[in-house]
Amino acid sequence: MGNSIWIQKFRFLKSMGFGIFLLVFILILSVVGTIIPQGHEAIFYTERYSEYLTALVVIFGLDHIYTSMLFMILFIALAINLLLCSTSRMKRIIIKVKQRNNINNMKEISSYKLVKHKEYSSVYRYIFKVYGTAGLFKYKNKDEVYYSSKNVIGYFGSWFLHLGIMLVILFYIYGQATFFSSDIYGVPGEVMSLEGTDYKAAIQAFNVSYRENGSISQYTTELELLDEEGKQLKKGSLNVNNPMRYKGYGYYQTSMGWAADCQAYKAALPLKSEVIFEKSAVNIQAENIAIALTKFYPDFAANESGFVTLSDMPNNPALLYAIYYRNELVKMDIVQPGEAIEWNEYSFNLNNFRRYTYLKVNKMNGQIGAAVGGILIIIGLALTFYFKPRELAIKRQGEGLYIYGKAELENEENRIANALKIENYLNNKEEGIDVR
Amino acid sequence: MFGEKQGFLTALILYSLAALAYIIFLISRKLAYSNYGSWLVRAGLLFHTGALVMRTVQTSYLPLTSQYEFATSFAWGISLFFVGFEWKYKIRSLGAFATPLILIVTFYAALQSAEIKPLMPALQSKWLVVHVSTAVLSYGAFAVACAVSIMFIIRDKIKEDEFTSKHMPQLGVLDNISYKAITFGFFMLTLVIITGAIWAERAWGRYWQWDPKETWSFVTWVIYALYLHVRLNRGWKNKKAAWYAVIGFASILFTYIGVNTILVGYHSYGLLYLP
Questions:
Q1: Residues 246-265 of B with CB under 8 A from A
Q2: Any domain includes B236
Q3: Residue B209 to chain A, least CA–CA distance (Å)
């Protein structure tokens, strides 16, 4: 009794019905994830949805569906379903392959009457050709039965497919669980530690290349990786769609912007000097004052729509800055690079504008496993759709010629068309056929 | 001078006339109209191909990078598949169901900006060519499957007479054609997703991140995977399969048009990503 419950559970886990249920569930959640914006703070949903809906989003984790435990569990269950299904399927495939070339496992497709005969082999060859088993045909002469088969590998198609999907799921989950992601950004000459690793990245150069028409053709960063003592580990260049790789880490050209040197003074005495990036600020905590580089206009112009840049080239550079004192905005203006910015006893100078590069550093484990899974999926689909197994047997008994085939050959329209072709062939004496 | 724009507009006119001819054929039951439709759509495909070639020569890259370019290539893909299927299966009335789909996508392309822009760094990848061209083939095959399935549904409803038995294939044949188109489309869609994943890894450092476009491609893949699964294992055929193929194509259209217009993600090339 106990055993039968386990057998039932096992059967349920490997069943196609369970697999379909999981797929439909995953499908619904995936769609919901595209409707509800993902990865925002609770306040984001409170502002957009009703109280009841926000509660639903938060309680059921609908704000992070794709990384939720439920989503992962569904995928793991699907992987288990595929594993069990593939295992039991393999047994059936092996039986099918072993049972090849056995007329007892085939059904009669059509029969013909032979009146006279000389060379049967040409007739058999023709019949095998009609049924598309000519490519790899072979004969087994046993009790006047001739066999031909093709695309035996096709039996393994769905198995490869299931195995491939299972590998993709498992390696994706592994990759997600161990995913490392960080960012580095800076101007050429800067050396920065990479959080979570024991080495540093030195930005040697950052170039923006242009086409003749002025459009940007590529962004390229020259990068050097150093160990803790400053010894070079790797040096190379990277650009969009062409990352630099080192020990599983990939360095991706993700973004860029403008940066400048910023000097801050109080009553002409230097307070701070550091690089300021566009849309960021230099904060002098001791003085409760900060200066933000709100926007840099390389080719500044003022028109009815406001301040704009006419091109990407520094033809008429200008910058929009903002000064905050005790978290209050106290001054905002447009000045040229190097022009003194003054507020009370404080003064600032923003100069030496150049581009900074922004790189994403990612490490996703299990990519090779997922790639193998992807290849198996392609192979599996190709075998399933385009390498359909074909088996044929021709039995001669007295004056009768009987054709047998497996289910794959039983398409009614094809059967009729093929039977007609063979009938015509057998009746055609002009082509040198010597039967009947 | 006859350029890409003129070629595209000529194709649009020819497709419209072809659709009209096929519909008249269905209504009047005069065979000559189906011949006109067939020649018109072939001529449209020729002009359409010419327009795409001219644009490729002008831009030095395949027309697969903007909304307009993908839409016109998508329409070209449907047109190519339709002409191929019509030639192979000699189904006279298929045009009445396929040419409206070609027209819808071609009109959608006509509504987009055809301005030629320099290729942004994000789109400079050999994977783009494989990824998007497989999408054109996949979507084209699914569109033909949808047209054949609509034909199945209508054929199933109307009375059998001389015209239908001569010019509209038996339900079994239609079901089989739809299945074949779906298997090809599904194979190509799998390639679309895999090549997209490889490209995403090279560009963003992550081969899958549930971007809306990725998610909807996955949703579409699952929809068709379920279709194939139940068909191959449970013998799900005919009417149910035909309705399913129509729903599947609706998902394709949403993945292509809906996601681009309603949802925002990495495929919008506007957020975090470089211009």
A1: 259, 263
A2: yes
A3: 9
From B92, B119, B146, give the residue that closes a domain: B119
Beginning with the edge strand found earlier in the chain, give each strand of the sheet holding A200-210 in spatial order.
A191-193, A200-210, A216-226, A232-239
B103 and B157 share one domain = no
Cα of B120 to nearest chain A Cα, Å: 7
Average pLDDT, chain A: 87
Chain A residue at shortest CA distance from B233: A16
Which residues in chain A touch residue B259, judged by CB atoms under 8 angstroms apart?
34
Looking at B119, B153, B173, the residue that finishes a domain is B119
Intervals of chain B under pLDDT 50: 269-275
In this structure, are B169 and B206 located in the same domain?
yes
Around A252, how many Cα atoms within 13 Å sit in the side-chain half-sphere?
Answer: 26
Contact between B175 and B122 under an 8 Å Cβ cutoff? The reply is no
Residue at B112 is within a domain = yes
Structure confidence at residue A430 (pLDDT): 41
Same domain, B153 and B114: no
The pLDDT of residue A98 = 85
- What length does chain A have? 436
- Asked if residue B268 belongs to a domain, the reply is yes
* Alpha helices (H) in chain B, listed in sequence order: 4-28, 31-59, 67-89, 94-111, 126-157, 162-167, 171-204, 212-234, 238-253, 259-262
Q: For the segment A181-200, what is each residue's pLDDT rounded down to a tens digit?
A: 999 999 999 999 888 788 89
Q: Are residues B157 and B227 in the same domain?
A: yes
pLDDT digits (tens, 9 = 90+) for B235-275: 888 889 999 999 999 999 998 888 877 776 555 543 333 33
Question: Could you give the C-alpha distances from A411 to A126, B88, B159, in angstroms and in order?
Answer: 19, 18, 25
pLDDT of residue A435: 38
User: Could you tell me if A370 lies within 8 Å of chain B, comparing CB atoms?
Assistant: yes
B143 shares its domain with B222: yes
A429 vs B259, residue with greater confidence? B259
Q: How many domains does chain B have?
A: 2
Q: What domain range is B75 assigned to? A: 1-119
Closest residue to A367, CB basis, from B176, B207, B216: B207
